[in-house]
Fold:
Amino acid sequence: MKILIIGDLHGRKPIIQFKDFDCIVQIGDVCDDKEISPYIRQWFKDIKNSKEEITDEEFIIQKVGKKEFKKMKGNSLKKGNEILKYLDSFGKPIFFVPGNWDQSFGKTKIKNPDKNDYLDYKSWFDHYLGKEINPKLIKGIKNLINCQFKLKNFKGINFLGHGLHSGVLKPQLVKKKRKFTKKQYSVLVKCYNSLLNILKKEYMKRNKKFPTIFISHSVPYNTKLDIGLQKDSYAYKKHLGAPSTLDFIKKYQPLLCVGGHIHEHFGKIKIGKTIVINAGFGKYAQVLIDLDEKKGKIRKIEFCGKYKIK
Structure:
């Protein structure tokens, strides 16, 4: 079976370079960033040299106002829907997880997450545990298959997804830098473990006779594929991937993990028995996987030759 992997698009219509494929895997972030991204870049620059705590959304609202920001988000969703409709036109199953740009976060009851480190972290766990996709994004998409925390099967292949996430949320990694009480830390560890347990529960339902493809919006943490390379960002040279993805891979060793989120990379590594692919960013962010599902082996991995890292 041949699987077309499509990376982060951010509103860019992909120019498909591979003609022969049986299904599509899109790893999230289809929604447009052209209107919002310039403000995000400015926010990154500002927080690098500022002690003031302010979210990206608050920063943008300060610059353009709530009404204009709402309009920008609507335009972003509309473009994401157009891209998914284009992918839908190929008539192939689209295995999809929403990215952090796709306005599909789970709901939180925390009204003031900036009040302290604990509320900030807890609210993000609430966001990342969301299981559904924004209905406006997927409206009219007949062949889309939601893989967010869900196990799906196609021609014997197991597909399991883990989307939305975009930052380092493992409490153990930030315990010394963040101000958590013992009780708060314990709650956050339970939240992190519950995320992994959801994935475990779905993974245990798989057909063990066939290989598993783990679709993660973000590539795993602390690898060659997750290092930030934008010099003007506070995250320059930092590892920006997902610890949850790394922990899942290390424990369960799926045949393949495909992800993105970190735009600076387009390539593959191996973690144990698992091949990990960063599918890249932009209109040529495509990888073709030729898979022997009966033997559970990859025949060939072909990266798009026209791709250029930006």
